[in-house]
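Subject: sequence -> structure tokens, single chain

Hey, anyone have a minute? Need the predicted structure for the following. Not urgent.
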Amino acid sequence: MTVRIGLVTDYFAAATDALAATVLLEHAGPSTPARGSGEPLFDTVSLPSVEPFVMLGLLAHLLSGRSYREVTAHPRHASLVAVAGDEGPWVVTVSDDLVADLAAASPAVLTDVGVRWARTPELAARPAEVVAPAVHALGSLAARATQVRHGIYCWTRLGPA
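Reply:
Had a minute. Here:
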């Protein structure tokens, strides 16, 4: 029996890099229920195997119209915040520009971008009817984070696909 290793990715909102880094203390990531309340530790959206450098760079390019090179050159585009080991988990930033663009986008724009994003080679295995709702979920997370002046981060690790 062969076990395929893939990337487990959750996107979450946090007030600071230091607070985002504390998610490394939780094996299950940012959606781990808090003791007592049972509510997730962080406002989280699970986007399995949507890695934060290339895939989110493509999303930022499609949403903003800026070149891929420009969006990936942003100093907070997939910038490492914390790491626990060679196989993760890792916490990286999502650029402030992408967060602002996602938060400001209308539902129609998010749907259009999701459909176009699904056509990229990096997401070709995922149908548009799965990708578009994921973009909406990320847009909603960005809107909530923007309202409270939080950033968005990606918690990722290697795990069974």
